[in-house]
Amino acid sequence: MSAAPTTTSDSRDPGRPLWAASAPAAEDPPPLEGVHETEVVVIGAGFSGLAAALALAERRVPVVVLEAGSPGAGASGLSGGQVIPGLRHHPADLVAAYGETLGLRLHAFGAGAAEALWDIVDRHAIACDADRGGWVQGAENAAALAEAGRRVRSWQAIGAPVDLLDRDETRARTGAEGYVGGWIHRGGGVVQPLAFARGLAAAAVAAGARLHGHSAALRILADGAGWRVETARGAARARRVLIATNALAGALWPGLARSILPVWSYQAATAPGTAPAHGLMVGAAAVSDTRRVLRYFRRDAAGRVVVGGKGLLRAPRSEGDFALQRRMIGRLFPALADAPFAHRWGGQVAVTLDRLPRLFALAPGVWATIGCNGKGVAWCTALGAPLAALLSGTPARDLPLPPEERLREIPFHALKTVYAAVGSLWLRLQDRFADPAGA
After folding, report:
1. Total number of domains in the chain
2. What pLDDT sits at residue 2?
3. What confidence tier does 231 reach under pLDDT thresholds 50, 70, 90?
4. How far is residue 343's CA from residue 340's CA, in Å, rounded to a whole number?
5. pLDDT tens-digit series, residues 292-337
6. Which of 10, 152, 268, 337 lies at a CB distance of 3.0 to 4.6 Å from 341, suitable for a disulfide?
């Protein structure tokens, strides 16, 4: 999560995403200069890297974090900020993928991911406009509502605060048109994602982590019994390394970037006060739906309506690139069909073919966490503590996500734009057949 923000400008948005425009100011950490000795090097100051660094520092493990830009400036600070409990998979799916013991452990860990994030917010008093008003998943049709019922029963079996919603309840909570029902998990919510990332960074530094911005990792080289991570102006030597760059893996480790598809997601926000003026989002902090080409929306602390969904196969360049978001807000909230967008921006999501996250053991002492699949706010934050345990010597068998020793490279990854284009078209056709009126 180490690239600079990608955004577009208009008369209302002077070149910055909403989150950069509304987050509290923070000083950039200094670049790495010279050679430094430490126990662990973490590459990437997004949610995964910062949460791991915080947990390491709390364990009194010396840790250096290297970030190409500033903390949270990549995918984390460009995200929707939706704190969603769990993974998208049913427990039976995880058992099929990992076996009963690991599958159920992974399900339980995912179920507690949102609570782990809220605990960090509370313990470190992070000012990030945290709203724990719950997450609703809207159902587009009868089949989707039946699937929502199965999910509710699965969550209720472990005592989670969930309920099935009918059409009227869904509309009352969200203000959105077009859903036949849905379900709510009251453990979910939203944060201002860039403010949260900056708060994580401050907490990690206060606990003893050394954080260096504008220090892109260029090479990871074997160095005696450990590793040497080189930047343009220095290097850090350590026994262990964690690559936490997610969708922005680049060429730092051979094959890592080929294990995921970096998919663009675009977001747009209305002016402050829009949501309360129209009675929107009064019973839920965050909403996404069951469409294969996902739509998600929320309100922020200033009452803006923020909508997000699939982008093009590149960074956004102009207002015309946000046609899907314009259609989306017009269909969900007809009263806002002509409301101007005050902010528009895009960010990348790391998607795996089976939509499961990955933890790779790349070499003795080198790990990579990748593949948040759009659930990264809660998932990546919660994973920080287990990653810190791993980097401190805890046996891998005790982790909620088992490390894999072989990269799962996507075949013909050089054709990733073709994958994305064909896959998107197929998913949109499935959505259209299921819901002919859908955006």
Report:
1. 1
2. 35
3. very high
4. 9
5. 667 899 999 999 999 999 888 889 999 999 999 999 999 999 999 9
6. 268
Name the strands in the sheet holding 6-7, side by side, starting at the edge strand that comes first in the sequence: 6-7, 343-351, 261-269, 305-310, 295-299, 286-289, 135-139, 181-185, 162-166
Two structure tokens written together for 282? 């009064």
pLDDT band of 10, cuts 50, 70, 90: very low
Element (H, E) at 108: helix 100-111
List the one residue out of 316, 414, 381, 433 whose CA is nearest residue 82. 381
Closest C-alpha among 67, 79, 73, 136 to residue 376: 79
Three-state SS sequence of 50-95: HHHHHHHHHCCCCEEEECCCCCCCCCHHHCCCEECCCCCCCHHHHH
> Residue 316 domain-assigned?
yes
> Residue 241: what residue type?
V
Give pTM, 2 decimals: 0.91
The pLDDT tens digits for 170-219 are 999 999 999 999 999 999 999 999 999 999 999 999 999 999 999 999 99
- For the four alpha carbons of 62, 68, 72 and 78, in that order, the dihedral sign comes to negative
Question: Residue 137 is which amino acid?
Answer: Q
| Band of pLDDT at residue 373, cut at 50, 70 and 90 | confident
Asked, for residue 234, whether it belongs to a domain, the answer is yes
Q: What is the pLDDT of residue 408?
A: 84
- In 10 A of CB 80, how many CB atoms? 25
Q: Is residue 348 part of a domain?
A: yes
* Residue 419 included in any domain: no
- Residue ranges with strand state E in 132-172: 135-139, 162-166
Give dist(CA 361, CA 404) in Å, integer: 6
| CATH number, domain containing residue 28 | 3.50.50.60
pLDDT digits (tens, 9 = 90+) for 244-260: 999 888 899 999 999 99
> Cβ distance 72 to 192 under 8 Å?
no
Residue given tokens 């997000």 in the structure block: 308
Which of 109-123, 290-304, 405-419 reaches the highest mean pLDDT? 109-123
Pairwise CA distance, residues 231 & 69, whole Å: 12
Count the residues in the chain: 439
CA 210 remoteness from chain centre: 24
State the residue range of the domain holding 402: 6-413
